Structures are given as structure tokens and as C-alpha cells.
Input
Amino acid sequence: MAFTVEDFEDMLRILERNPEWQERMRRAILSRELLELPERLLALVQQLIESDARNSAQIAELTRTVQRHDEAIASLIQTVQRHNEILLRHDELIAELIQTVQRHDALIAELIQTVQRQGEQIAELTRTVQRHDELIAELIQTVQRHDALIAELIQTVQRQGEQIAELTRTVRRHDEILQRHDEQIAELVQVVRELAEAQRRAEARLERLENRLEGEIGRQSGERYEREVVASAPVFFYGGQGGGLGNPMVQDQLRQWLQPLFEQGVEISHLANPFRADIIWWKGDRVMVVEVGIKVSRDDVKRAAARAELLRRAGVNATPAVIGEEWGLPDVQALAQQEGVEWFVGDGLSQGFLEFRKLPDGLPRR
Output
């Protein structure tokens, strides 16, 4: 007799009304390996849970150890992170295994309903179980490797803790050495400062001596140049007579010219005092009051102008003039023109100086 769909439906209703028959039907249809598969899976899952609990305890202890050495073992943190990633992959495998078990339950329920396809499905399920066995074996090996890695990691943390303690002692010794060096450097800095101050004082003294020496050399050079100009005055003025400071003839002549002012009681300032002029030179009734300097300065121009002006107040036809090798500043020549001071500076002569040279000297001819 053929087994129809109606018969199959009737059989399912009978099994639903008699649950004890379902177990006997399952044993009759499924092989022993398939029947034992959930128990084996449950045992494996329990082993994984226990292994994971052991791992969790070890990881907690490792975490406390890592926290004590947190700042000094950055590389260890990276290793723990890699371990966490492995554990995450472990969790993913477990989740995948659970999903596989759930799919197995679905397949078993479908197997009860679809007896006709049991041959092919049982063969496929057998192959799947074999793959699962391989995966489970590989997972067990992975867990064992994790246990070995964790143990090695604990030893590494302990060694690094000892190294950190030794490094701390070394750093303390270095700090003491650096502190001594800082004190020595501070002493050296103080010595350098004292030496720098002594050098500064010596340089300042040397600069004062150099300035004094330059001033003395300049004064001597100016006096020598003045003596040379006084000695060569007839050449500068093309004849005439006169002289420099201390010349008795010049002194007598100045007293005669200034007698009216003396009688009037006129006060003569240092700037306008013709007795301090470098050269008093005259031709007939024309007198030239001359200041001499290697570099003609503004003061030379002002002194010559003031002394010539004083002689003019006494009724003398006096002209101020300056003689030198060069102008001290570019604006001194303009000042001389402004004050009416003639000049013989370098190779340049003013028009008034040239006219004075052309005057007859007023001396008797031999």
C-alpha cells in the first residue's frame, strides 16, 4: 500500500497527541550520532564557558597588574589589545557555533516533517558535523594557545615590572648627578659673570685711555699743524706781517688796537678775545683774524667771527678767516659763508682770502 500525504498528516497528528511517541520516532529515524549531537554540543559549550571564565579571571588579574604598571608599559597595552581582539574573534566563533546549533535544531524539526529527504539531508548533516568537529578541535587548540599566551604575558609583565623598578633607581641616580651638575654650572655662570664684568670695566678703562690718547695725539697734531701754518704765514698770505700766540709784536699791536675798548671798560669774553687767536696777520690797515685746525670745526668759525667783530668794534678793519686741511663736517663751510668768514681749507680758497693775498704787504721795499 502506498504511503500518501493524508497518511503522513494523520501520523503527525498522532505524534502530537502522544509526545512519548515522538522520542521513539526520533530514535527510529535519526542515527545515534545525530541524537547525541546536542549533548556533545552542550558539553563543548560548557567547556568553552568554563575556559572563558578561567580566561576572564586571568584577564582580570592581568588587568590589575597592567594598571599598576600602566604608564611604563605602553607596548604591553598594545599586546593586551591584540589579545582582546583574539578574544573577540573567539566570541564570534562561539556565536557562530550557537547559530549553527540553532540551525541544526531547525534541520531536525524539518527532518521530522520531511522524512522523504532524510537521506540526502542526513549525508549533508554528517559532513557538516565533521566540519564542526574540525572547527571545534581547532577552537580548542586556539583556546589552549590563548592560555599559553596569557601565561607568557603574565611573565612578561612581571619582568617588565622589575625592569621599571631598576629604571626608576637609575633615573633617581641621574637626577642626583644632574642636580650636582646644575650647581656646578651655576657656580661657573657666576664666575663667567664676574669675569665679564671685569672685562667690561677693563674695556671701558681701555676705551677712556684710547680716547684720552687720541685726544692728546689730536691736540699735539693740531699744535704742530698750527706751528707749521704760523711759520708759513707769509706764504699763505703772500707777504704782510703778524704772528701767532706769544708773538711780542702781535701782543703790542693788539694792545694798541684794543686801547679804546680798554678805556671804555668793555668786557671781553673768552670767545671774542683776540689775544687767543691762532694768527693775527695784517697788510696795511687790513687785518685778518685766523683760527687754525687740521679739521676746521664750527667752533673755529665762531671764534674767528667773534674775535674779528671785537676788533671791528675797536675801529680795526678786521676780517675773520680759518685755515685747515679739510672741513670737519659738511655744513661748516656753509656756516663760514653765513658768518662772513673767509677760508683756506685744503686746496680751496674763498674769494675774500684771494683778495687779501693780492693786497700789498705795506712793508718798505729794500
Notes: The first helix runs from residue 5 to 17.
